């Protein structure tokens, strides 16, 4: 049973989401504004496993709430809900640190599917210990570069033997770069394939996430050897410099 926090000021919508998530077997709490949500997250025991977060909240926007969650070092999965339709709004949500962005009115089954998948990924990461399938059969493939070991099946990441926790989008970006190892990948392609933004305006979203990957995996992030910038184009991942 997962602990889920729903942050939504429209009572009828909050009730509907809570009812359906509880029908899935989860324990659900509701906060009506951003400040209350942050206080619940800080004091919760056990900690929340997922947050469903509306953007339009009284006093403090969902963007600001998500930014505060990430600034506190909390990597809890965040599903952001919004009636806004502009690509710029989606980019702002991803920049704030959301994992999934759903546009209202959303399909209930889609929301439940997103929640199931994010919780499953978080459970695999929370297992800890060395990567392995634990149930016989073929061993899980572990990708290694530099001092890092990455298991894309279990979402386990280790750098110099120590566990590192990446968000869903950071893992998706890393996986895409690894799959295109050695090739120059344009920013536009990354925005389309990783973020699902087909008509993205000028944005530094990709650059921000690349800085995060360098912080995790580079011995000296200011002098990267794995995540290389290609001026005016995009990025190239090199496993063995």
What's the topology here?
Layout lengths: L2 E5 L3 H13 L3 E5 L2 H10 L6 E5 L7 H10 L6 E5 L4 H10 L3 E4 L4 H19 L16 E3 L2 E4 L4 E4 L2 E3 L3 H12 L4 E3 H7 L11 H13 L9 E4 L3 E4 L4
Parallel strand pairs: 1-2, 1-3, 3-4, 4-5
Antiparallel strand pairs: 6-7, 7-8, 8-9, 10-12, 11-12
Helix pairs in contact: 2-3, 3-4
Outline of this structure?
The protein folds into two domains: 3-125, Response regulator (Rossmann fold); 140-237, Arc Repressor Mutant, subunit A (Orthogonal Bundle). Helices cover 39% and strands 20% of the residues. It has helices at residues 11-23, 34-43, 62-71, 87-96, 108-126, 168-179, 187-193, 205-217, and strands spanning 3-7, 27-31, 50-54, 78-82, 100-103, 143-145, 148-151, 156-159, 162-164, 184-186, 227-230, 234-237.
Any descriptors?
single chain; 241 residues; alpha/beta; Rossmann fold; 2 domains; five-stranded parallel β-sheet; four-stranded antiparallel β-sheet
Characterize the structure shown.
- This protein is of the alpha/beta class.
- The protein has 2 domains: 3-125, Response regulator (Rossmann fold, 3-Layer(aba) Sandwich); 140-237, Arc Repressor Mutant, subunit A.
- The chain has helices at residues 11-23, 34-43, 62-71, 87-96, 108-126, 168-179, 187-193, 205-217; strands at 3-7, 27-31, 50-54, 78-82, 100-103, 143-145, 148-151, 156-159, 162-164, 184-186, 227-230, 234-237.
- It has a 5-stranded parallel beta sheet, sandwiched between helices. It has a 4-stranded antiparallel beta sheet with strand order 6-7-8-9.
- The protein is globular, with a radius of gyration of 19 Å.
